[in-house]
Amino acid sequence: MPIFHHPFPALGGRAEIVLAAADEAEAKRLAQLGIDEVLRIEHKYSRYRADSLIGRINAQAGGEPVELDDETLALLRFADTLHLDSEGLFDPTSGVLRRAWDFKQPRLPRPDELAPLLALIGWGRVEREGKTLRLPQAGMELDFGGFGKEYAADRAATALKAAGVRHGHVNLAGDIRVLGPKPDGQPWQIGIQHPRQPGKLIASLPLRQGGLATSGDYERYFELDGQRYCHVLNPRTGWPVRFWRSVSVVAPLTVAAGALSSLAMLKEADGLMLLQRSGLPFLAIDPDGALLRDAIH
Amino acid sequence: MAATESLGGRILAAALCLPGLAEPAHADGAPDQGLIAFKYLDYLDYQPGRERVRIRAPSLHLLLPLSSRWALGATAIHDAISGASPAFHTRAISQLQDERHAADLTLTRFFDDASLGLTAAYSNEADYRSRGLALSGSWSTEDRNRSWSAGLGLSKDVINPVTRLVVDEKKRVLDWTLGLTQVLNPRQVLQLTLGHNRARGYLNDPYKVSHERPRARHATRLLLRFNQHLEDGGQTLRWSLRHYQDSYGVRAQTAGLEFVQPLPWSFSLTPSLRLHNQRRAAFYVEVDPEAAPFATQPPEDWLQFSLDQRLSSFGARTLGLKLAWQPTPDWTADVKLEHYAQRGDWYLGSGSTGLAPFAARSWQVGLSRSF
């Protein structure tokens, strides 16, 4: 069976669905099922769209509660697990910090800029009752960064599997979900971006199934006085995390891989112990550019 | 402070609760593909200077998903048995020949987190007919990290040896099993199975002399398996420990190790080693060298006695090698070779004496296709 590539723009980046099918028309029809699912999730949960559910929740902050559907409630429960397991370092309300950090310009926020934003962060303060959610204070924001894109990759894979696709993968800007090996049984070679040399790979992993997610300090950042400031922000200090250049995790589901790579970035040096205890294969690049890996060669 | 001990497992469990993400491979859902598998086994056992039993057994297995909730499985086997078997200990080897036809049919109903199966089995040879029914069930936790299984089987056999030593003798076996499978982390799985069976009726081998086994036997077995997947090169290690004991006084332990090594071009090679240690039945009569060439006489006050080598004290080891090839996800071909050797003096303790060393070799080829 030949292999077909279907690139498409989604979630602010480059996405691609790769699958084996009898012919191009069939491949296109199948890929569209995955693309539709990714776009559905983007429209529902994008923080940049005023008409998305997240857009409505954020617009209602300090106002009326918003009623949620089962899918969203399940995602919130997943966020609860990450918040608990990271002792609060993972916080779905920390997106407000982006108001102080604009990675297009090398400028550090003043302390009086950060303090009022830190006061708006607090997953524990979010009011949830039954099927409703309310952000208690105007200006608070909710977003599904750290697991939304990865969830979309898994859901697209579910849609493709249900349509009978057995060989292929979904790639959402480097977060990958593999449906099954190539038609000849060989694994897909999935490249991991080099954190310091754009366009170059630092490693290539053979994957037959499951998910791979990478979080790094190279996606959005600026450098000032020799120090790199990246987009992964600590919700307690309001400052970018330091330490890992990038962390990649392999797990049966991309959403689990993404959560672990995000938590490892947030935990900085302690992230290594977290990765080692996760029992999952990982590849991390430390501040000196050294590759630390477990069960990935 | 949140423990990070099994963080990967916890996060994965939480992720599996997200809608649409429970992996069909982990779920109890009905198989979404059918399977047809053919196997051919050639088995020969022997002692020095003498071939004993040879079995050639082709078998066919079919698995058919009927809907998303139901699946049907069926197996048919034909055994051609020929060769010779000792009438007592490892002597007085006399010819035998038989054919056995056996078939079973399993209907399985799948639920969201559970499955229930009913199996009917039938086996027939010239001197032995067996019919059985079994009920099996499994139940998994929502995160699929733990699953329980249980089975209950009943078989009724009728024995009519060609010697007419007994006529229409009956044997009934009631067997139950309880199993627990626990995913420790994405690369390690532990499985514990406890089984018990109660056999009643004619438990003798009618072709052996000086053979009077009790008409009831209770046997208990405990099996511990541990599978470890090494992500590095895709290898898998499978450990197993088995303990068996029965009311005949037999106590046996088996330790097994298998190592699956993936090779280029979709091949994999699996060497295996199994060590077995068995203590004899309480009524096993050891060989008296003075009695040769006649059978050793059991002590006069024994009501039950047996000169069957299978009930002696021995140690055994099995070496195996399997080469599998999966050129596409739908096709699998494999060939498996095994060599088994058994000696009284390999028993850990004082083993049975005076028996010829026993050995067996087998090879099996298999071909399966998913559809």
Radius of gyration of chain A over all CA atoms, rounded: 19 Å
Roughly how many Å apart are the termini of chain A?
Answer: 29 Å
Question: Which sheet architecture does the biggest sheet of chain A show?
Answer: 8 strands, antiparallel
Tally the helices of chain A: what do you get? 7
Q: Please, how many domains of chain B?
A: 1
Binned, the helix content of chain A reads 25-40%
What proportion strand of chain A?
A: 25-35%
What spatial form of chain B do the alpha-carbon principal axes imply?
Answer: globular
Give the tally of β-strands of chain A.
15
The largest contact between protein chains, plus residue counts on each side, is: A-B, 44 and 36 residues
The largest beta-sheet of chain B arranges its strands as 1-2-3-4-5-6-7-8-9-10-11-12-13-14-15-16
Instruction: Give the C-alpha Rg of chain B.
Output: 23 Å
CATH classification class of chain B:
Mainly Beta
In terms of per-residue confidence, which ranges of chain A show pLDDT below 50 for 5 or more consecutive residues?
Answer: none
Mean pLDDT of chain B: 89
Please work out how many helical segments of chain B DSSP would assign: 1
Classify the oligomer.
Answer: heterodimer
The major β-sheet of chain B equals: 16 strands, antiparallel, barrel
Distance between the termini of chain B: 50 Å
In one word, what is the shape of chain A?
globular
